Amino acid sequence: MSEREYPQHPRVGVGAVVIRNNAVLLVRRGNPPGKDLWAIPGGHLRLGETLGGAAEREIWEETGVRIRAGYPIHAFDFIERDPAGSIRYHYVIIDLQAEYISGEPCGGDDALEARWATGQELTSLNLSETTLSLLKILKFSTVTA
Q1: Is 134 helix (H, G, I), strand (E, B) or coil?
Q2: Residue-range definition of the domain harbouring residue 124
């Protein structure tokens, strides 16, 4: 069991939506929750860290891409219970708009893979439900389903 499981309080997570040349930056998660699913890159907010600072650090650590974090564009709760009904994970996640600065995606930290994906390519990826929902809200390219 990891330190992330069965928390005493919700954890704050931050992600960054980075679009470049009509493609969105995604990572394939290496750890639960969401292991093996493609998602918006991001991670945990550290004590004393701003949302923007956390997003810039996490995207660099997970993908090797440098960004400039912008304003919040999406927030959601992620709560997962075990079969007995106990809360296994509880995150409050805030996704920020971000501007690409430099770098080419390469999986790092807890991301197995990182890549740019066009709207047409999204249908062939196993996307997390929240990522799919967010990309629909943003009307990113041809996201359907």
Answers
A1: helix
A2: 11-137
